[in-house]
TrEMBL record, chains A, B:
Function: Acts both as a biotin--[acetyl-CoA-carboxylase] ligase and a repressor.
Species of origin: Paenibacillus phyllosphaerae
Name of the protein this chain belongs to: Bifunctional ligase/repressor BirA
CDD domains: BPL, HTH_ARSR
Catalysed reactions, semicolon-separated: biotin + L-lysyl-[protein] + ATP = N(6)-biotinyl-L-lysyl-[protein] + AMP + diphosphate + H(+)
GO CC annotation, single: cytoplasm
Chain residues that bind biotin: Q114, R118, G119, R120, K185
Length: 326, 326
């Protein structure tokens, strides 16, 4: 139904097509037409409505296509294969399944839309069609389990550098791996690991990036805490395939540095990009509330927090972090 | 078919029942009877055969029963529920599924038999019916991912102490978590972890213990490297429920020590029980072959190996370890 409307609008070559004509051609009411138009808008089509003139197709969703992705990723060797989906429950779930079935390292799952995108701690990840990047990659790093949190921090550094390359914005890393622009979240990273004793079996690296979302795409309660590259850089849509390629190049480079030189250079880069350090913070940890000033990462990737008495406490994991009250 | 034979043998109250009678009652050949008898033996029944007298039921497999397990585990609080199976592919697989479905910490899966028991690195675990302990427990420890390898070492200490309590044998720990008696393996531990970034989501603690296996239960190639508590302690079968309870008590105790005092006391106990330390060793690590003398564990649970030049190298994971050649 909405496909037929799309055809009719497209045949108008950017000119208005009257609601009456659409209604007659499809044999449905003008209210029904309007509902189909809304569906198309959700898919990323930009449709202008005029009470007098009808509807006009003003913009198509920019779809990620295989040839375009292949072209952009030509210079990287970290991606071994790409699975591109229109709509999935969660790219993370699909990559998990592929990993269990033996998919090699570098298997990359990308979807235009997620119906149950997952963020850290089971939180939902807003994933409207054609607007963001929703991807999960199977990694089989030859690393001991203890090093997985370092990989989480490395991923944040790679993504931060990639986004800054695409759009020169003040993007910073909130420990451990959220990216923020002026306090608003722009991307999320979720590394899910499966290990056997002290050995990593595989890691599913999930990345969500709010690239071309507009303010209309967010539930109202998220507007004060979430933004997109497009909103933050002034309104023009960005090329998602270029963003993906930029991340993969950064990740490949930093991973090579990490394997040859260890965590120390990654640690330095993370600290330089962090918006978490040197600000009084209250952390909800499994062991209770910790108040202090985060001063650095330690060797294993934990956040070192200086307490009131001057002691430095390594924080391995925290539910949430925020400025202390009052 | 074999159930009917069992009935007939049981009705003999320990006396011989002729093959002729069995053959007539079941309407099958004496060769077919013999095949059914073999099946029963595999299930743990002890059946004596006499060419002249026929067959005699000399022993039944000792089955683990729920009331017996509940009774033995009454004093522990770490087990929240028990699922007892006759035969499964792998208790580890079942516990994984339960964990994914939300099973609480302490959910314990026990099976009399595994058809595809799994050991470390995808190796098979010999799991004949009624002879060993094959169990997997869902744990949801509030620990950062980095600490999972410490849990592996803690499990080895708990199991070693439990088995020594049951049978006073020279049982030692081979790094990280195999238990050996005079170089022969008596149990295996496999901790499979699922993590989200720096947080452990759940751990499936798999334990296989060769309790009452006899030499006939092992493929010939395993005899030089595998043994059972029964073989090592002189031939009498042991009470498996008591072994399970002994382990759970030790694990519960040591876990409480670990949570309140950290890894250091566990480290000390592990080192005292280890058969790995202070012997020249060749380790196949993902980074290559390392030769040296293991001297201790480090804080994060890695094995510290002193190299020829006196440096100490932390080994996080190794494919195999054996004495250097020649």
């Amino acid at each position: 139904m909405s496909n037929r409307i799309l055809e009719l609008l497209s045949s108008g070559s950017g000119q208005y097509v009257s609601g009456e004509l659409l209604s007659r051609e499809l044999g449905i009411s003008r209210t029904a037409i309007w509902k189909q138009i809304k569906k198309l808008e959700v898919q990323g089509y930009v449709i202008e409505a005029s009470p007098r003139l009808g509807y006009r197709l003003a913009g198509k969703p920019s779809k990620l296509t295989m040839p375009e992705l292949m072209e952009h990723l030509r210079d990287t060797s970290i991606v071994s294969s790409i699975k591109l989906f229109e709509s999935v429950d969660s790219t993370q779930n699909i990559a998990h399944r592929l990993a269990e079935e033996g998919a090699p390292s570098g298997t990359l799952v990308i979807a235009e839309q997620q119906t149950s995108g997952r963020g850290r701690m089971g939180r939902q990840w807003v994933s409207p069609s054609g607007k963001g990047i929703y991807m999960s990659m199977v990694l089989r790093p030859d690393l001991p389990l203890q090093f997985a949190p370092q990989l989480t921090l490395l991923t944040a550094v790679a993504l931060c550098r990639a986004l800054k390359e695409i759009a020169p914005l003040p993007i910073g890393i909130k420990w451990p791996n959220d990216l923020l622009i002026e306090g608003k979240k722009i991307s999320g990273i979720l590394l899910e690991s499966a290990a056997e004793d002290e050995r990593l079996r595989h890691v599913i690296m999930g990345i969500g990036i709010s690239v071309n979302l507009t303010e209309d795409d967010y539930p109202e309660e998220l507007l004060p805490i979430a933004t997109s590259l497009r909103i933050a850089s002034g309104g023009e849509p960005l090329d998602r395939a270029a963003v993906i390629a930029s991340f993969m190049k950064q990740f490949e480079h930093l991973y090579a540095v990490y394997i040859s030189q260890g965590f120390s250079p990654i640690q330095t880069l993370w600290e330089a990009l962090s918006v978490t350090l040197h600000k009084p913070t209250k952390l909800m940890t499994p062991q209770g509330v910790v108040e202090g000033i985060p001063v650095a990462l330690n060797d294993s990737g934990a956040l070192l927090v200086r307490l009131g008495d001057g002691r430095e406490m390594p924080i391995f994991s925290a539910e949430s972090m925020r400025p202390p009250q009052g």
